[in-house]
From TrEMBL:
<feature type="domain" description="SH3b">
    <location>
        <begin position="218"/>
        <end position="285"/>
    </location>
</feature>
<dbReference type="GO" id="GO:0008745">
    <property type="term" value="F:N-acetylmuramoyl-L-alanine amidase activity"/>
</dbReference>
<dbReference type="InterPro" id="IPR036505">
    <property type="entry name" value="Amidase/PGRP_sf"/>
</dbReference>
<dbReference type="InterPro" id="IPR002502">
    <property type="entry name" value="Amidase_domain"/>
</dbReference>
<dbReference type="Pfam" id="PF01510">
    <property type="entry name" value="Amidase_2"/>
</dbReference>
<dbReference type="GO" id="GO:0009253">
    <property type="term" value="P:peptidoglycan catabolic process"/>
</dbReference>
<keyword id="KW-0961">Cell wall biogenesis/degradation</keyword>
<dbReference type="InterPro" id="IPR003646">
    <property type="entry name" value="SH3-like_bac-type"/>
</dbReference>
<keyword id="KW-0378">Hydrolase</keyword>
<dbReference type="GO" id="GO:0009254">
    <property type="term" value="P:peptidoglycan turnover"/>
</dbReference>
<dbReference type="GO" id="GO:0071555">
    <property type="term" value="P:cell wall organization"/>
</dbReference>
<dbReference type="Pfam" id="PF08239">
    <property type="entry name" value="SH3_3"/>
</dbReference>
<protein>
    <recommendedName>
        <fullName>N-acetylmuramoyl-L-alanine amidase</fullName>
        <ecNumber>3.5.1.28</ecNumber>
    </recommendedName>
</protein>
<dbReference type="InterPro" id="IPR051206">
    <property type="entry name" value="NAMLAA_amidase_2"/>
</dbReference>
Amino acid sequence: MHREMTVKNHRIPSIWYKQTSNLSAGRTLNPSMIVMHYTTGWNGEGSRDWLMGAAGGTSNKGSSAHVVIDRDGTAWQIAPFDRVAWHAGPSRYGDLQSLNDHAIGIEFVNSGPLSPDGNDQWIDPYGHRRSKDELDAAGGFIQASHPRVGGLVYAWPNYTKAQLDTGHAILKALTDQYPISAIVSHEEIDTRGWKTDPGPAFPMDSFRTLLGDRNPAPRVKSVTASRLNIRKGPGIDYARIDPPGALERNTTVKILSADDDWRLVEVSDGPLNGVRGWVHGAYLG
Ligand SMILES: [Zn+2]
C-alpha cells in the first residue's frame, strides 16, 4: 500500500495526533536530520503513551519522539516537527552534537535483540521467553551478533512490511518538506556506545535512498593494515570488540558513518561478518 503524506504546519494531518508532555520549552527545531529508533517493546500503544509522558497517562519525564509507528502500520504523531523532542541522548554526527536540537525522531515498534536461552528459545529485553514459532508469527527474525549487546548471536525481529511502508511515506513527506541532509540510526550517533537501534534487521539503506544525492550510499572499503583494531566507539579509549578485536588485511567493510578520523563500519566478510564497530580510517583503502 502506498499512501501519499504531506506536512502542514509541522504536522502530518492524515495521521493521529496528540502532543507529548516531554518537549523542550521555548525551543524551535529546524530539522536537518532524521534519527531512526526502535521502541524496545512489542506494545505500540504502550510505547506511544510512555513517550507522551503525563499526556499519555504515564510517569515518564525523560524521553519522547516525534512519531511512533506500530507493527500494523498505524502511525501516531506526538510532537510537531518544529519542537525539540528527547530521543537522541548524548550524540554526535560530524560537527553536530546533541542531535535532539537538529533531528526528528521516528520510533518503530520492535523489541530489539533477544538472547538465546540455549534451549531453542529466545529471551526478550523484559525477560519473557519467545519460541521460534512465536517470533515467526510476529514477522520473523534474523540472527546476528552485535558487540554492544554481548558475545552471543541474537535474534532481531523483522520490521513488518506495513510498518516500513508507513515509515517510507512519512520519511518521504519529511524529506520533501525539510532540508534533511542525513537519515541515521540511533546506534551510529550515540556517543556512549550503548545504543543498538534500529539494529541489523532494519533496512536503513532503503530509507537513505530518499535523500538522493544528499546522502550517498555507504561506501565499501577494504582493510589495508595487516591487522586493524575494531572498537566499540570512535577512539583508542574504547575497548576492542572481542573476540578477536581486529580485522585482517583485505577484509571488506561498509562505512556507515564517520567521526573525525574514525569510521563506523559493518564488516562484510571474514570471521566478523555482520559485526559493526569503529576503526581508524587511515587503514581503509
Ligand atoms: Zn533510540
